[in-house]
């Protein structure tokens, strides 16, 4: 009888250990449940006020409007005496510079104003403020194996994401608190062997449309921990 009990205990222990392992998709679902418990990102319609602080530059203050159901994006950014406004609505684009729609060619060239840049801003803000929900977008490949890493002295569950060729070539890692599943760090590489790319530390939270978003995002180089700047969500 004792032999059977011992065997059962061993098998039971293995089943518990196996059950404690979490897959990439399961981790992503838990993280989304933490950040967007009511599934509001899919119909997000809101305004973000973001200040970017960078070394040796004055702050850049941006007002960002995102309406996902209407495929509408707007950003108004001011630094020094320059104000740039981009609007993207479905397949249309509009640019305003210092309050003018009739922009001199020299200003267009000097300030790199283009609809391509407008769409880059759209993708940038919707991706970063839509995380981790955006990791369910088509073209995102979630590694089924969850890694356990210590970063800046704290243990994390780490999700690796790559992308289909038509979406992107960078390799991303997302670091989640193992108890709450809050996203606290993310990191990307263009060539991981060269340790290039950047990591971003997320601190504090702002709740917008019942979605928990990072209030502060501090950017650093992977290679030398060089500080790049901080985005602050007002």
Could you give the topology of this structure?
Blueprint lengths: L1 H19 L3 H12 L9 E9 L6 E8 L4 E8 L2 E8 L2 E6 L7 H6 L4 H15 L10 E3 L4 E5 L2 E10 L7 E6 L6 E7 L8 E11 L2 E11 L5 E7 L1
Antiparallel strand pairs: 1-2, 1-13, 2-3, 3-4, 4-5, 6-8, 7-8, 8-9, 9-10, 10-11, 11-12, 12-13
How many strand units? 13
The number of helical runs is: 4
C-alpha termini separation = 66 Å
What is the strand content?
Answer: 35-45%
Please summarize the sheet with the most strands.
Answer: 13 strands, antiparallel
**Gross geometry:** globular
**Pattern of helices and strands:** HHEEEEEHHEEEEEEEE
Description:
InterPro entries: DUF6503. The protein has helices at 2-20, 24-35, 105-110, 115-129; strands at residues 45-53, 60-67, 72-79, 82-89, 92-97, 140-142, 147-151, 154-163, 171-176, 183-189, 198-208, 211-221, 227-233. By secondary structure, it is α+β, with helices and mostly antiparallel strands. The chain folds into 2 domains: 23-38 and 132-234, no CATH class; 45-129, no CATH class.
Concise account of the structure shown:
The chain is an alpha+beta fold and 234 residues long. It folds into two domains: 23-38 and 132-234, no CATH class; 45-129, no CATH class. The protein is built from four helices and 13 strands.
Q: What tags apply to this protein structure?
A:
13-stranded antiparallel sheet; alpha+beta; 234 residues; DUF6503; 4 helices; single chain; globular; 22% helix
């Amino acid at each position: 009888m004792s032999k059977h009990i011992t065997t059962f205990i061993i098998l039971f222990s293995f089943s518990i250990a196996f059950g404690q392992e979490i897959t990439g998709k399961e981790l992503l679902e838990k993280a989304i449940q933490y950040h967007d418990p009511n599934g509001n990102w899919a119909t997000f319609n809101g305004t973000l006020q973001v200040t970017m602080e960078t070394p040796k530059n004055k702050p850049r203050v941006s007002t960002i409007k995102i309406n996902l159901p209407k495929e509408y994006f707007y950003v108004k950014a001011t630094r020094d005496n320059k104000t740039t406004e981009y609007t993207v609505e479905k397949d249309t684009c509009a640019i305003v510079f210092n309050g003018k729609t009739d922009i001199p060619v020299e200003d267009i060239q000097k300030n790199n104003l283009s609809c391509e840049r407008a769409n880059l801003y759209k993708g940038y803000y919707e991706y970063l403020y839509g995380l981790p929900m955006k990791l369910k977008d088509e073209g995102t490949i979630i590694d089924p194996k969850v890694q356990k890493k210590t970063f800046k002295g704290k243990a994390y569950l780490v999700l690796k994401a790559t992308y289909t060729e038509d979406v992107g070539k960078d390799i991303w890692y997302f670091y989640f608190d193992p108890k709450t599943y809050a996203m606290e760090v993310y990191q990307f590489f263009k060539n991981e062997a060269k340790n290039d790319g950047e990591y971003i530390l997320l601190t504090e939270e702002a709740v917008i449309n019942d979605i928990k978003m990072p209030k502060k995002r501090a950017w650093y180089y992977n290679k030398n921990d060089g500080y790049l700047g901080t985005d602050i969500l007002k």
